[in-house]
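I'm curious: can you give me some protein's one-letter sequence along with its backbone structure tokens because I've never seen that pairing?
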Amino acid sequence: MKLKIVTIGVYGFTEEGFFAALTEAGVDTFCDIRRRRGVRDSQYAFANSQRLQARLAEMGIRYLHLQDLAPSQAVRARQEAADKASKTAKRQRTALSDTFIAAYEAEILSQFQSQSLLDALPDAAQTIALFCVEREPTACHRSLVANKLAEAYQLEVAHLLPDV
């Protein structure tokens, strides 16, 4: 079977809905690409690292923390400046700015060896989830990582969204 990639954010999901979406998508490997693995809002406490890892283990889903794919503070500052200029709240953002994309591609994706991620996956891996917090995939760096993997290896990508 060919490897499939899904992306998922936490905002907008209930705890039950989040884990149900992973199950329905057949996720067997969960790649956390956040730098800080916590979420401040108590309704999303289930996505804090230790609780998240424990729940995924109960579900039989492997957990990988790929911090090298997280944007640096300097790259994040580009998006924060763009959000401020457009008067867009982070959780209301629907797309990444061109300055963030350029900086992320130059600093992070240019150094990322796609094959090393695929090599680190167990042979049995069929569906991997790329995870960060934003609801909209186009407002999050996970979509950039997914696109790079999809283009390099002709992989299918699906974006898991909360029912709203």
